[in-house]
Amino acid sequence: MPHHVGVRFAALQEAVRTRLWPLPVIGVTLAVIAGVLLPLLDGAVDEKLPDSVRNLVFGGGAGAARTVLDAVASSLITVTSLTFSLTVVTLQLASSQFSPRLLRTFTQDRFVHVTLAVFLSTFTYALTVLRTVRSPSDDDGGAVVSAVVPRISVTVAFLLAVVSVVCLVLFLAHLAREIRVETVLERVQVEACRTADLLYPTDGTVTAERGTPVTVPGGAAQLVAAGSGFLCLVDEGPLLELAQDADVVVVVDRAPGGSVVRGTPIGWCWSSGGRPLDAEVHRRVQEGLDEAVDIGPEPTQAQDLAFGLRQLVDVADKALSPGINDPTTAVRAIGHTSAFLCAVADRPLGDQVARDEDGTLRLVVRRPGMPELLDLAVAQPVRYGTDPAVLLRVAQMLEEVAWSTSRAEVRTAVRTQLGRLRAAVAQADLHELDLERLRKASGQVESTLAHPRSPTA
What we know:
457 residues; 10 strands; alpha+beta; 60% helix; disordered N terminus
């Protein structure tokens, strides 16, 4: 059972990454602070600046300072509006062209966050400094006041405007790259592999008992969902401690990413000693489950191993739809799917199980194994992909997965999906040349399955 430090913090970090507002809000706050403090610094050091520095900072009067600050503020709010408009257009394109599930990938783009933060911070800073500029004709209660021109502050505003212009150019270049399907697929694959590294590190600290499924006894008590939505996270540490203290076995029967409905079963618990479960213990376990499980309006990648894989499959399905008909994109999506599956093929996927030191079962959290992941990766592309290139790429993916693992369970799953592929090919109306290529590719998968690689290969 993986015991990740700060599971709740990781979930919070995932939530913040997918929001556009946190970094810009921080930038605006810092801009207000700088806009208040820098003019105070100006008042203390402006008259003491050496000539070499005075020649570098702003040298105009109050009217010129107001013009500069007003120009910076008005232009930056316009640029910010343009940036938001382009971002919205990109989100619409990603939703319609690729998949609605990819919107989360675009909204967590750190480059967009930083760009918006720079623009809004520059706008806010210019406005804040503008309030400190005074002309000699300004009066306060009839008394003529001397001119106040915060030279360093105006110079900083000018530099921020230059930085904003550079950011705008870089943002346009970045946006042009981000809307390319190759970039989208690569980012999804990288995020999916990162999630796999967190859930199933390669240091041997994770155990799975896929071959020995836990049987729920007849007298087990049901644990129900506290809300409706998607199971986003299971904080396993508190659940394990509760199961040990109450001497019970807890099974969370829904994997993260699955849909749940309020009041319906999502788990089971029973006494580890075989005696009837006390009602008070059942209530404690139910309350502990409610606190340890996060249910949200949409799936997240925090603990959902299939989240990225589902996105890749969605892109392939969308490309194979009659309205788009882009088999090349589908082939590339299947290629990234294969890269992810090969990366996790030899890992101990499956239900996460925690036991006491004496081997007593305490906690089971359902997780997808390679058979489920392979089914997700193959079923829909084979169902919708009548193009020979797509079917051929699926066959190559099965061969690559078979080569990447020595686990008997995974190889059995590959053989099952190969049978599904052959059935789809038999029903498709294909040219004899295409059928010959597919038969050859299927034979290569069989050959790879018949000669498993060495564990040291």
